[in-house]
Amino acid sequence: MKKLRALVLMHESLVPPESMEGYSEEEILEWKTEFDVVTTLKAIGHEVLPLGVCDDLGDIRRAIRDFKPHITFNLLEEFHGVGVYDHHVVSYLELMRQHYTGCNPRGLLLSHDKPLAKKILSYHRIRTPGFFVVKKGKKPRRAAGFEFPLLVKSVSEDASMGITDSSIVYDDQSLFDRIQFVHAETETDALIETYIDGRELYVGVMGNRRLKTLPIWEMAFRNAPPGMHQIATARVKWDVEYQKKLGIETLEAKDLDRAVEQKILSVCKRVYRALSLSGYARLDLRLNSEGDVHVLEANPNPNLSFGEDFAESAEKVGIQYEELLQKILTLGLNYQAEWRLV
Q: Which fold, 5-102?
């Protein structure tokens, strides 16, 4: 294995310490991905420079000039406080003729614009929940033809920001209130989609042209009270005590019919290609009681923490964490960006 100089981009508030010692579980959760990636890349022999970035591309330019990285390991999820600006940073890396890990600018742009992504999937006859959008500042409404229950979320925010148990609504007043909440809380337009009751599934996909799907993963609620909607709210994803209370686990999906499993994996590859994804991604799906697969959204550059669902599903097929990061580096080095073709 060739030793590489790897510049690791992350938000300036998430630059990890040298050790986890002395930090609480909640504190570690904030920068665990960054810590795991940086320490593991060092452990497998690469020279690593963590770089915290907020709103100055000059920091990246100077690091590239001085450190001369072979590749940039991209962990940025926003720029200037705006989540959908991450694709601009990757575009900048391409303009600087830099190899980088993860998704290309086009794939980031398409997948982060959830209404646009759903239109593309519908064009390709890939099943996704019906939806409509209420623009920020516009009067809340329910589009014609939509029946309850409905799910209300942000058109662009990820990590379940703005999603709570109240995001599923059953009447117009609750719908209007929730739309206003999303507008105020996330400062984005509101995406309203048909709620699909069923199993919450995740599938990791890796590759540029040739794609590899990882085992189908599932979110389980061991201690959920009767009647509770089992959806991935912000608390479910990020509140450690709440996770313990509900007995939340992500684990390999069991008892899937072989034909359904193959359909899920085939759909995931179609989504990956339809949205021009590259590097690695996690696809979120719902499987209803009739065996219908509904694609909720695509998440390029998902959480890479050791022990989280993407790394766990890779380990299930014998890809240890160190090898997973090395594969991601290799995919980045091999990605055929436009600047490599001229």
A: Rossmann fold (3.40.50)
- pTM value? 0.92
CATH class of 130-194: alpha beta
Start and end residues for every CATH 3.30.1490 domain found in the chain: 130-194
User: For residue 32, which of 286, 315, 307 has the smallest C-alpha distance?
Assistant: 307
Q: Which of 339, 296, 300 is nearest to 208 (CA)?
A: 300
Burial class (CB in 10 A: 0-12, 13-18, 19+), 38: buried
Helices 321-334/309-316 angle, 10° precision: 100
Pairing of β 168-169 and β 150-154: antiparallel
What pLDDT sits at residue 5?
98
Please state, in angstroms and rounded to a whole number, the distance separating the CA atoms of residues 235 and 241.
9
Instruction: Indicate the class that CATH gives domain 197-334.
Output: alpha beta
- Asked whether the beta carbons of 9 and 61 are under 8 A apart, the reply is no
CATH 3.40.50.20 in the chain, residue ranges: 5-102
Summarize the chain as % helix, strand, coil (round to 5). 40, 20, 40
Question: How far apart, in Å, are the Cα atoms of 299 and each of 111, 171, 269, 302, 304?
Answer: 7, 30, 13, 6, 12
Does residue 246 have a pLDDT over 80? no
Residue 309: pLDDT band with limits 50, 70, 90: very high
The answer to whether 168 and 221 are in contact (CB under 8 A) is no
Strand-pair category, 190-194 with 150-154: antiparallel
In the chain, ranges of CATH 3.30.470.20 domains: 197-334
